[in-house]
Specification:
heterodimer, A: about 100 residues, alpha/beta, Transcription Regulator spoIIAA, five-stranded mixed sheet, about 35% strand, B: about 300 residues, Phosphatase 2c, domain 1, Heat Shock Protein 90, 2 domains, five-stranded antiparallel sheet, four-stranded antiparallel sheet, 12 strands, about 25% strand, elongated
């Protein structure tokens, strides 16, 4: 199960398992966002390199336009993956 | 008839009641010269027992893993639809020990004839079970079919063949399953892994890392070993303090992902590109990983252990 949507407060809410099979769905959604965005990962149970690739691609696009993608409510497993991949140096991350 | 049994059991009939009512209905509905053989029963996965009625279907085979002997059980009743019944003897009950196999095999197997008119018979079936008892039920079924058709030679098949095999797992043994070369399989793989962790009582804290390593290696095989349509085999084995996973890709060129896991995780954003991270993360997160290649079979095995407490 994987879900991605905009909350009423304008945050991107991500839930479930973001694996290679779901990366296309995430990418299609994130390709549509513009400006500075907060992504709430409190419901994200699992992420693989395919999911990281989608976040990276979106982040690069937003940064090049002078914006930023902030990751909030990041659980310890996702945080470990972000650290091991060096993404903690690229993203503004707020632990859950 | 299968639907009749399902409905009867669904509305709360006991096995005996269902059998009696389905039989009596078939007596009403079938012409006098028609009848049906059938097996119907319940497998209790907690007690490892099978309770069943077998109407003219037999022999039912219970293969014992410990001494490789076979019990051949006669039908519990006559075929369905022959004559009405008011009562029935209690269901037969068989308890399976670890590694035992319970087999419902139609007479189309036992009575398969070769060109000389000889029957395939029970002993040939038993020998196949002894020879291939350690294989998967799918492989055992394939071996049995191969042996039947080889035995039959040029003789025509005279009857239909049904083979239903059930084996009780041995504690601590591996789970092996085959996957299509499709990333859509990832959900099923995660479900199998989840069930395996629960069944073997493996620390669930290891699951996301194991799922990630399997996914990255599986996706690599699907992406880069494109010259084959063969399914990919995944084997999960419990270890004393964790889990061992083997992915096997058949009929492929050599591709060792363990030597490709080089990523500069300190590179600045402008130099980072999506991709290449998967194997890097796998190498980083698992405790050991090995690659083996021979006879066009590519095999990757990794182990993930619990953190020392």
């Amino acid at each position: 199960m994987f879900e991605i949507e905009l909350s009423g407060a304008g945050e991107v809410i991500v839930r479930g398992r973001l694996d290679a099979a779901q990366a296309e769905k995430a990418e299609a959604f994130l390709d549509e966002i513009e400006g500075a965005f907060v992504v709430d990962l409190s419901g994200l149970e699992y992420i693989s390199s395919a999911g990281l690739g989608v976040l990276l691609k979106t982040h690069i696009r937003l940064v090049s336009a002078g914006n930023v993608l902030k990751l909030v409510q990041v659980n310890s497993h996702i945080n470990d993956i972000l650290k091991y991949s060096g993404f903690d140096k690229l993203f503004d991350i707020e632990a859950g | 008839m299968q639907a009749m049994f399902r409905v009867a059991l669904r509305v709360g009939a006991s096995l005996d009641e269902a059998y009696i009512h389905v039989n009596n209905q078939l007596v009403e509905d079938l012409p006098d010269n028609k009848f049906l053989t059938a097996f119907v029963g319940f497998l209790n996965k907690h007690t490892h027992t099978i309770r069943y009625h077998s109407g003219g279907q037999g022999p039912i085979l219970h293969f014992h893993a410990d001494d490789q002997s076979c019990d051949w059980h006669l039908p519990t009743s006559f075929p369905l639809g022959v004559m009405e019944m008011e009562t029935i003897d209690p269901p037969h009950e068989i308890k399976l020990a670890q590694g035992d196999i319970f087999a419902v095999i139609s007479d189309g197997v036992y009575e398969y004839q070769n060109e000389q008119g000889e029957l395939f018979g029970e002993e040939r079936v038993a020998q196949i079970f002894r020879d291939f008892k350690g294989t998967s039920m799918k492989q055992l079924q394939d071996r049995l079919l191969q042996a039947i058709f080889k035995f039959g030679g040029e003789a025509s098949q005279l009857d239909d063949i049904t083979i239903v095999l059930t084996r009780r797992k041995v504690d601590g043994e591996a789970t092996i399953f085959m996957c299509n070369r499709d990333i859509g399989e990832l959900e099923r793989i995660a479900n199998v892994t989840r069930a395996f962790f629960a069944e073997k009582d493996i620390d669930t804290g290891l699951r996301n890392v194991v799922d990630l390593a399997i996914e990255e290696l599986f996706v690599n095989m699907v992406k880069y070993n494109t010259g084959t349509h063969a399914k990919i085999e995944i084997k999960l084995e419990p270890q004393q303090d964790g889990i061992k996973v083997t992915l096997t890709d058949f009929d492929v060129e050599r591709f060792d992902p363990t030597v490709h896991g080089k990523v500069d995780v300190n590179a600045p954003l402008e130099d980072r590109v999506p991709g290449g991270l998967g194997v890097f993360l796998t190498l980083k997160l698992v405790d050991s990983i090995e690659y083996d290649y021979h006879d066009r079979v590519s095999k990757i095995t990794f182990i993930k252990r619990e953190e020392a407490k």
